[in-house]
Amino acid sequence: MGSTRKGMLNVLIAAILWGSSGVCAQYIMEKSQISSPYLTMIRLLFTGVILLTLSFVHGDKIFSVIKNRKDAISLLIFSLFGALIVQLTFLVTIEKSNAATATVLQFLSPTIIVAWFALARKKRPGIFVLAAIMTSLIGTFLLVTHGDPTSLTISPAALCWGIASAFAAAFYTTYPSTLIARYGTLPIVGWSMLLAGLMLTPFYAGEGPPS
């Protein structure tokens, strides 16, 4: 399998898994009545530990990034504004609407990324990219209004959190490229998840699911 097809397959699998995780999160929050921040904390902590363990077993030098002061600061920035915010805003959007709406809103992130790079590089996207952007925007408009621009089918809070989730996902996707190139995907994503979970721990560790 060529690298392009392999990349497309990975994107497809990632999208399916991310959407499925939203459905699971909605089910857990509805059935257990736990809050989205608490679930975010648990999700980040366990994922971080699992990914770092896999990275260590794989032979990666997982502590290298935290020994470099500049890269460690970049990792903290990525952990806070990337891993933590993207997970939290996604789950809050689910809590205030549903998994399908949250996923569609967050998947506006490619549009944001394309727009950012087009402005930064002063280069207009190709016709197919523009068509994809317009399709995603029209689809989102229909989702939140059902074609009536004077009303919303979801709460304003859900819409705001969903848009914030899209911007967070755009940052999450673009910011760590240098770190990943230097240290690998598993160590960077693993540390970012673990650190993000630890950032929430002082505020939500004592919450737990209702008895």
UniProtKB/TrEMBL annotation:
Subcellular location field: Cell membrane
Keywords, comma-separated and alphabetical: Cell membrane, Membrane, Transmembrane, Transmembrane helix
Span of domain EamA: 6-144
Pfam families: EamA (PF00892)
Transmembrane segments: 41-60, 72-94, 100-119, 126-146, 152-172, 184-205
GO CC list: plasma membrane
Membrane topology: Multi-pass membrane protein
Protein family (similarity comment): Belongs to the drug/metabolite transporter (DMT) superfamily. 10 TMS drug/metabolite exporter (DME) (TC 2.A.7.3) family.
Annotated protein name in UniProt: Threonine/homoserine exporter RhtA
Classification lineage: Bacteria, Pseudomonadati, Pseudomonadota, Gammaproteobacteria, Enterobacterales
This protein's encoding gene: yicL_2
